[in-house]
Amino acid sequence: MDIRVLGAHNCESQSARFVCLLIDDKLAIDAGGLTSSLSLPAQQRLKAILLTHQHYDHIRDIPAIAMNFFLNEATINIYSTLPVHAALASHLLNAELYPKFMEQPQGNPTIKFIIIEPGKIEHVEGYGILAVPVNHTDPTFGYQVTSPDGKIVFYTSDTGAGLTKCWEQVSPQLLIIEVTAPDRYQEFAKESRHLTPSLLKQELINFRELKGYLPQVVVVHMNPGLEKEIETEIEAIARVLNNPITLAYEGMQLHL
Ligand SMILES: [Zn+2]
Ligand SMILES: [Zn+2]
Questions:
Q1: How far apart are CA 125 and CA 148, in angstroms?
Q2: Which of these, 16, 61, 131, 156, could form a disulfide with 141 (CB 3.0-4.6 Å)?
Q3: Reported confidence tier of residue 74, pLDDT bands at 50, 70, 90
């Protein structure tokens, strides 16, 4: 399984893109920096997009990718929950901001939206997909993706602390998890249901107690302006836990 980090951040600038992962060139998870990172032919190789929740930084490129597929007379499958479908239909693809690509062209809409059932393995393009609830302000699901040859990655998406129930359901070799801000923002992180390095540390300790191992850990969704601070704190935690924890960056390639 080859995973490319297209977007690694929670804010956008010339050097930072909204969070987005690409698996084996055909499966995207979240659509932050999706169209802005891929050529048109690479976009057309996409088979499916999994959306974790409705926040703007995770769905931003859905209208843009839909337009490109529409102009190419092609269709794209999007997997997510009912609230995400409702948010896209009422706020973005509503014939006011942009065309209703989930309904049009009639009979063969550009976006085929498939509602996923949490806790049940869905088969998508040969991959086993498991949606697992995490702890964020709006309903949010992490995705465990199992490749045809049995490699397993779990991406939490945005989440706060309290992931024990989530850990019970997953067994990844690679964990892609969020850390939005450094520890001095812990109160903000708790309120907005995000993680800081110390909160991540406790979640990883819980993971190890429950599962008896720690996977390789890659951190995404950093605030670019606070990234140096986050990095220093993450390095200290990686040393204490004696486990690889690295910050993702745009263009990072991971192989399982
Ligand atoms: Zn969010
Ligand atoms: Zn976010």
A1: 9
A2: 131
A3: very high
Residue found by looking up tokens 């049940």 in the block: 120
Question: How many CA atoms does the CB half-sphere of 19 hold within 13 Å?
Answer: 31
- Model confidence band, residue 39 (pLDDT cutoffs 50, 70, 90): very high
Cα 202 vs. chain centroid, distance in angstroms? 21
Helix or strand (DSSP H, E) at 113: strand 111-115
Task: Give the ligand whose atoms come closest to the C-alpha of residue 222.
Answer: 2
Closest Cα to residue 143, out of 125, 166, 163? 166
pLDDT for position 177: 98
Residue 222 Cα to ligand 2 midpoint, Å, equals 9
Q: Residue 114 C-alpha to ligand 2 middle, in angstroms?
A: 22
Q: Could you tell me which residues come within 8 angstroms of residue 149 by beta carbon, excluding any fewer than 6 positions away?
A: 1
Question: How many alpha carbons fall within 13 Å on the CB side of residue 60?
Answer: 17
Question: In this structure, is the dihedral angle defined by the CA atoms of residues 253, 63, 46 and 144, taken in order, positive or negative?
Answer: positive
